[in-house]
Specification:
This protein is of the alpha+beta class. The chain has a domain of 117 residues. It contains eight helices and four strands; from the N terminus they run αββααβαβαααα. A hairpin with a 2-residue loop joins strand 1 and strand 2. It is globular.
Length: 174
């Protein structure tokens, strides 16, 4: 099986408190480990997760997640999940050392970098007056969006992959 794609990673990224994050259960599925192992890594290495490297969701945020997702993904979750922003994902990658974790980290970094570039391009587009520069920025934005979503647009499997990851049954190339 091919390594996990940027498109799959992008579909899992959510925004909490104005920060783009991956939930502990999604990180675990991507890395091919149990959620319990991800949380143990955090618990056993508290010095590697200072403020800004890990978000501990509140009960209200868990309720909000339940209302946003139509699946039963959070129905049995009693403890609010942890969420990892980009910095926390880098740190987690230094702890969870495996071939799968390394491949997944590359995919996560690529997805987050593309999202950041798209955000920058869109902001710049809103202030640029030169038509040629606007055209160039619009073209670049389209290329980034195509990179992020192209596989899903071609195969229409985005929801399938999201469900596979949510169930923890996605196999990632080792």
């Amino acid at each position: 099986m091919n390594p996990i794609s940027t498109e799959i990673i992008h579909s899992l990224i959510i925004e909490i408190r104005g920060v783009r994050v991956l939930l502990d259960s999604d990180v675990a599925s991507i890395y091919g480990v149990d959620t319990k192992r991800v949380n143990e890594a955090v618990k056993n290495n508290p010095d590697k997760f200072p403020a800004g490297y890990l978000l501990r969701l509140s009960n209200d945020e868990l309720l909000d997640l339940r209302s946003k997702f139509s699946t039963t993904r959070f129905s049995k979750t009693r403890v609010p999940p942890c969420a990892f922003p980009e910095r926390g994902l880098y740190m987690l990658a230094t702890i969870l050392k495996s071939r799968k974790a390394t491949q997944a980290t590359f995919a996560i970094i690529e997805a987050l970098a593309k999202i950041r570039e798209l955000s920058f391009t869109i902001k710049e587009l809103s202030v640029v007056k030169d038509e040629e520069k606007q055209k160039s920025l619009m073209q670049r934005s389209g290329e980034i969006v195509a990179d992020l979503f192209d596989e899903g647009l071609q195969t229409s499997d985005t929801e399938h992959w999201r469900n596979e990851i949510a169930r923890g049954s996605l196999a990632i190339a080792a």
